[in-house]
Amino acid sequence: MTDFQTIRAGEQTISVRKDLRVPMRDGAELAVDAYHGASDKQRPALIAMSAYGKELQALALTTPPQRRPSPMWDGCIEAGDIARVVKEDYVHVIGDMRGTGDSDGVMIGNYNFGGVSQGQDLYDLVEWVAAQSWCDGNVGMIGISYFGSMQVLAAAERPPHLKAIFVSGGHYDFYETTYHGGIMWFMPRAAREGRGGDSGIAHTNIKSRMVETHSPEELKKLVDERLQDPDVAAWPNLVHVLKYPKNREFWFDIVMNHLDGDWYEERNPITLAENIDIPVYLQIDQGRGWTLDGHIELFDVLKGPKKLDIGSYPPMQSRPWVEEHDKMFRWYEYWLKGIDNGIMDEPAVSTFVEGSREVVTAAQWPPKEIDYKSLYLRPRRKLSFEPELMGAEHAAPDGFYQAPLTVTDKVEVLNWNTEPFEEPTELIGTGAAHLFVEIDQIDTNFILRLWDEAPGGARQLITSGYLKASHRELDETRTTEGNPYHPHTRAVPVEPGKIEEYVLRLYPFAATFQPGHRLVVELSNDEPLADAHNALLPPDAFHLPVGRPVTHKIYRDAAHPSRLVLPFTTVTASERSGS
Q1: Pairing mode, strands 280-285 and 165-168
Q2: Do 321 and 426 fall within a single domain?
Q3: How many CA atoms lie within 13 A of 410 on its CB side?
Q4: pLDDT in tens, 201-211
Q5: Which side of the chain, N or C, has fewer Cβ within a 10 Å radius?
Q6: Domain that holds residue 209
Q7: Same structural domain for residues 238 and 387?
Q8: 180 - beta bridge partners?
Q9: Are 525 and 445 in contact (CB under 8 A)?
Q10: Residue 511: is it exposed, middle or buried by C-beta count within 10 angstroms (0-12/13-18/19+)?
């Protein structure tokens, strides 16, 4: 039974329709709450749907926004500023996805792979909302991260009354969300289990896709095989998840699927986005390269009216989420209310450039013409535009030994740096790191991070790259200069003692190095758990450490030109065309 009530938020009165039951085509019902102004007039609706629980989202009315590293920051309060949405004269519909919160049904696997499509449920919800007496038939969506991904899944189903979406910080290629360069990332564990600053999914009725599709005998064999990976076997939480998956179903599925393929591609939002023809605004801040990458990839796929807005560092917005609302309401004012505010007369792509703090606009990404140039790793930890001329017998390799974190707390980090820049130097785009490395094991991780270091030593992360050594294979048909592509469909053990070329993809970025600043590149096979960048992320936002001792030799001589390939800007596309 629906509970209708009114509440006060500052100076305004908000009407709340609690626990509305929305019928799905298979008979299940989803639970939603609807917030709107005091009068009964019809309004456009903005729908926010996730598995995190609508009651958690209601805290946006009572909890001031928190920023990392506040311990009160909860990564799952992502549905938006309810009071602001109501003040702008929209209905804010917040609900629970199938199998979570107060909704019916079963969710099978992450994003319901193998169960009822979440896009199908969202189609039914959009059309139900549009038909309600309090909605004028114009529907958009709201929310970041998981909520953003749901917007893409909904739009791909083409519900007739979904007129536009505004996506911030969504996750798209689900393999890339959970394995960076083949290296397992722990943050999805937090979102699903509720650890390290996240409340997690409001579990009610969920099941593992792996458990649903394999017999107990098959699954035991697959689990035993997964535990042969010493990285997994050395991490207690992963052993526990694999041995006792019952209440960790989603994380169990991720751990069990460490290669890309059908399991991830079945409902990949990037693939589904080819069906989207409504207007889409994509917004993402720098500092979370894998997510920025997904937004750019999605932007390139979309065929309808679209915007790409790349904001400034730091990487994590407030919780409850309140940022970007000005841009969002301007977008919906145009597409849901029919007010010509000029937004579609502006360039499609807007990019904040770190360092110069300029905003560059263009019709495409990257927003300027670029010229890929190489910065070579040289002896004495230097980076230079000139390659090394001596052979390895004289330019002996750099190296480091990393013991597993079961026996040490120290993460070894090698670094190389340029001389201070003499003039502003701008880089915008993706990049690559070509590293010639010899290891004494069959596998390791390569974690590479680029920093802008100021004369006083202060520094900011610019971009990063990840690659599991056994995932080094490249798809040559999709690899271009400065933009390598790894299929991650199989793992090929490394021959110990053999020098291999590893090509790491550096996530997209935009930065200007000011005079006196240096570019510093760091290489390790694990990552420091606390530094200038990681302090801005939730505690679980690190990668699975290597579980075996590994000695690394990094060659950077005449025969082994280890280097960074970086996107230095030249002129803008408009300057080139003379417009």
Answers
A1: parallel
A2: no
A3: 7
A4: 998 998 999 99
A5: N
A6: 3-346
A7: no
A8: 183
A9: yes
A10: buried
